[in-house]
Each structure stands twice: as C-alpha cells, then as structure tokens.
Write a structure and sequence with these properties.
The complex is a heterodimer of chains A (243) and B (269).
Chain A (H helix, E strand, L loop, with lengths): L12 H21 L9 H13 L7 H33 L6 H16 L2 H12 L3 H25 L3 H9 L4 H36 L32
Helix pairs in contact in A: 3-4, 3-6, 3-8, 4-6, 5-6, 6-8, 7-8
Chain B lengths: L16 E9 L5 E10 L4 E5 L6 H8 L7 E6 L2 E2 L5 H9 L1 E4 L11 H6 L8 H6 L4 H13 L15 H14 L4 E5 L7 H18 L2 E6 L2 H7 L2 E6 L2 E7 L5 H8 L12
Parallel strand pairs in B: 3-8, 3-9, 6-7, 7-8
Antiparallel strand pairs in B: 1-2, 1-4, 4-5, 9-10
Helix pairs in contact in B: 5-6, 6-7
Classes of the chains: A mainly alpha (243), B alpha/beta (269).
Chain lengths: 243, 269
C-alpha cells in the first residue's frame, strides 16, 4: 500500500476568529447571568405546581368573557397579518437581489431590520398617540411588526429560488414583473404561504401581550395606566378590547 | 377538450444571424469569445461543437442578448444587438426560443403555465401577471404541446414529468413563442440515449417542417453529425471549423477538441 498524499487542510482565519468570538460571548453570557444551577432539580416540581395553580380551580363564570377576548385577540392578529402581507409582499420583491437598484434594496433591508429590532408593544405605544387606544392601534402595530419579518423572509426566499426558470422567462422576452410572476413566484409560493401562517401564529401571541398596555380599550382606560414605573403595567388589562 | 387544428405554419419567416468580429469578455476577465465571425442563413440547422468552456454557451446567449457583446457587431433578424436597448432586446427574445440543458421549467406549476411563458412577450403584462391569457394564446400553447406529443400532460405539474417529457415541455414553450430562431444549449446532456434521440428528432422536425432556424450546442460528435447540416467548431472562444457535416471528419473533431477523438465523444446508439 502506497502512502496517501492528503492535501493540507486550508484554514480560514476569518472563520476561526468568528468562532472564537462567538464562543467567548456564549461563555461570557453564561457566566454573567448567574444561574442558580443547584435549583435546577426543583424545576419539574415547580412546573407541576404552576400548572396546578393555573388549572386546578377554574372560575367557569369567566369562560364566556375569556373566549370573547381570545376571539378578539385572534381577530386583531388576523387583521394585522393581512395588512402586513399586503405591505410586505411588494417590498420583499424590491429588496431581493437582481430585481431592483442597490440603494432601494439596502434601504428596504435596513427598514426591515429596524422594525425587527423594535417590539410590537413599543410600536403600539408610538402609534397610539395618533390612533388612540383602539383595536386598530394593535392591528397596525402587528402589521408593522409583520413587515419586518415577512419582508426579510420574503426576499431571502426569492433569492433562494432555482435560477433556471428565471433564465427561461428572461430568454423568452419577459419583463422584470413577468420574470417575477412566472420565473420566481411558482417556486417561492410554498415558502411565502408558510411564512404568512407562521407570522399569524406570532401575531396571535403578540396580540395578547399588546392587551397588557390596553391597546384596544377605547373608553374605560386612560393613557395614565401606561405608567410602567408603577410595577403594575395596566389596571385594565382584564378587559383590554373595546366592549 | 377538443382543440381545433389550424394549418398556419408556426414560423412566419425564419431569421438569419450575422456576427462580425464578436468578442465577449466577462466581468471576471474571462474571454469567452474571440473575434467570432459567422453567417447563419434562415432555415439552417447548425450544430455548434466544442469542449465545455469553449464558448458554446456564450455564443448562443450572445445571439439572444442574455450575454452582452464586448466588441464587434451582431445582426439577428431585424435587430442590431450591440446598440439594442432593453425593450428591443425583450422584443428580440420574444421571437427566439431557447432550450436549456436543465429544462428550466417552473416545476411547481402546470405544464400549460410553463408553455404559456412563451407568450409573455406577445401579451400585455397585466394579462400575464393575472394568468388571464387570451384563448388564442392558449390555442397556440395546445398546438405546441401537440407538436411534441405531450398534450395529454397539459394540466399536470411540471415536476411530475420525466426528464424527456420535461424537455419536450421546454421545446413546446419555445414553439409557443412562434419563434423565428431556436437556440438549444446542450438540450440532451441530461437525458438517457434513447430519449436524447427523440428530443433531437423533435428539434429536427421543428427545423424541417416549420422551417425555423435551429442552432444547437452539442459535445457529442455523432449527435452533431446526425442532426445538423452544418458544424461550427469552437475552441477557447475561437471558431476553428465551419463547414458542412460531410467535411467534419474525425481529424477535424480532433482539431476542435485539441486531442484525439475517443469513444466517449459519441452517444453511440
């Protein structure tokens, strides 16, 4: 048997540096949060205790109201998602490489990133100064939040599609819009639909959080209740949708 | 559904191609074509041969403007490519059918929607965006599918078809343009030998029955000889042979390939 000549493995110093930095951050994070690891053993018992507290003695008289609130929450999430889809859909195409000028692309990507960095509850607080404590405020906050994630997922899906049909539609004389419609969209459809459904899920969850600041409550709740410093986020969180 | 057959030929009048000292240099610095001069007459069936990297793909992509020429002049149909604007290039491409090695179908939509891509340049944008093609455009699509014998699959998803069937759909897509010129880039390199002959036969029928000019890139010698009437040999971006099939001997192919011809250079069926 002859000796094998294995070529030397190439090291990418940028990659190595990135791995070391990320590793250091993770270790540093664990170090700094000061987790009481010793209490980890109590966790299962605590989970059971909390589940017991939550479900052992339900007040069935509250059920109709709870269901009504849940429905309103879902409705708000639905409106927010649909508005988010309508706005993000064209923007995602404009943000994808190869279909619009670079300044437009980078501007939109920055916009999506900024939106994603801001929690919906902050967006709601900002826009309620214009729209007031109405259900619309909640839906708009969710819609804006949705644009951040749907826009990013959308352009990534568009950039990831098979380039073959794009070349074929271009070669048959298609305009950019036609290339997007028949070269990109058929391949990207399943991704888009799954993103939309996932974002709807996120919005249902977020709409419950928005309830804490009273978005959706029109009459009984004044903006004073928004003083987070009191330690009581809202005095009217029990009925946060207009009724 | 019964589709009525019209007797009008699909190609009104085939196009010629005239290249003068065409060079193509990519942004990466790679020179794909060097001073290529060619005249292809209307209705010819040309095989372009050469090893991979010899410039075959660049040559046919220059003809429909997918690759811009760096210098020289190129006349296709009534279009002068070195000065053509974006809108003119789209109109030019609307008359040129293109067939690819990888079929390039939108796999998640129907065969019909794929074939109707051939009508994009001949329909208003709004109609194409909504998928609301005119009945006459659908008729052209049905006839194109019938011509390659695949009309029964019209409503199937493209991904459900075999490789040979997908390439036929791609040929139907090109025919649906009512092209004056068809460019095929290694159309059978992804197919098994019997299917390769069927697809090459389809291209020959397009040329013979409809009179459309066909330019096909091939690297297999027997296919190039059998299905072309003229052979153009490319080596490192230069034309090293241009003549009738009869003149393209094994010695000529050895010159084009830069090495002696071997059995792997033929499909052999």
């Amino acid at each position: 048997m002859t000796a094998l000549t294995v070529p030397p493995r190439r090291r990418d110093w940028r990659r190595s540096t990135a791995m070391i930095v990320v590793g250091a951050v993770v270790i540093g994070a664990f170090w700094s949060v000061d987790v009481a690891w010793g209490r980890l053993g109590e966790l299962p018992a605590q989970i059971i205790r909390y589940l017991w507290l939550m479900f052992s003695d339900p007040d069935w008289s509250k059920l109709p109201e709870a269901l009504a609130q849940t429905w309103k929450s879902v409705a708000m999430a639905w409106v927010g998602t649909v508005l988010g889809i309508i706005v993000s859909f064209p923007l995602a195409f404009l943000a994808a490489r190869g279909f619009s000028p670079a300044p437009v692309r980078w501007g939109l990507r920055l916009l999506f990133a900024v939106i994603r960095a801001v929690p919906e509850i902050i967006i709601a607080i900002v826009i309620l100064s214009v729209t007031g404590l109405t259900p619309l405020t909640g839906a708009l906050a969710l819609a804006i939040g949705s644009v951040g994630t749907l826009g990013k997922w959308g352009y990534e899906a568009i950039e990831g599609v098979d380039p073959g049909p794009i070349e074929a539609t271009r070669a048959s004389g298609g305009t950019t819009a036609q290339i997007l419609r028949w070269g990109v969209w058929p391949s990207a459809t399943p991704d888009f639909i799954s993103f939309w459904l996932y974002r709807f899920e996120i919005n249902v969850r977020s709409s419950a959080v928005l309830g804490l600041i009273g978005v959706g409550e029109s009459v009984t709740c004044s903006p004073r209740t928004l003083s987070f410093g009191s330690g009581r986020p809202s005095e009217c969180s029990s009925s946060w949708w207009s009724s | 559904m019964v589709v009525e057959h019209t007797s009008t030929p699909i190609a009104p009048s085939p196009w010629s191609v005239s290249m003068r000292d065409v060079s193509v240099r990519y942004a990466s610095g790679v020179v794909a074509l060097k001073n290529v001069s060619l005249d292809i007459e209307p209705g010819e069936m040309v095989s372009v041969v050469g090893l991979s990297g010899s410039g075959k793909s660049s040559l046919i992509r220059t003809i429909n403007g997918l690759v811009p020429l760096t210098s020289g002049s190129l006349h296709v149909g009534g279009f002068q490519l070195e000065t053509a604007r974006a809108g003119e290039l789209r109109r030019l491409r609307g008359h040129i059918g293109m067939i690819f090695q990888g079929f390039n179908l939108a796999k998640r939509t129907s065969v019909l929607n794929n074939v109707l891509v051939g009508r994009l340049a001949h329909t208003t944008t709004l109609r194409t965006l909504l998928g609301a093609y005119r009945a006459s455009d659908r008729q052209i699509a049905f006839e194109a599918l019938e011509r390659v014998g695949i009309l029964p699959k019209v409503w199937d998803r493209a991904s459900s078809l075999s490789g040979g069937q997908q390439q036929r759909v791609a040929i139907a897509r090109a025919l649906c343009q009512q092209p004056r010129l068809v460019l095929a880039d290694e159309p059978v390199a992804s197919l098994d030998p019997p299917t390769a002959h069927e697809v090459m036969g389809d291209l020959r029928r397009i040329n013979q029955e409809l009179g459309i000019t066909v330019i096909t890139n091939l690297h297999l010698i027997d296919l190039a000889r059998r299905y072309g009437t003229r052979i153009i040999g490319l080596r490192a971006g230069e034309v090293v042979f241009d003549g009738a099939v009869e003149a393209a001997t094994d010695e000529v192919f050895a010159e084009i390939y830069g090495r002696s011809v071997a059995s792997e250079d033929a499909l052999g069926l």
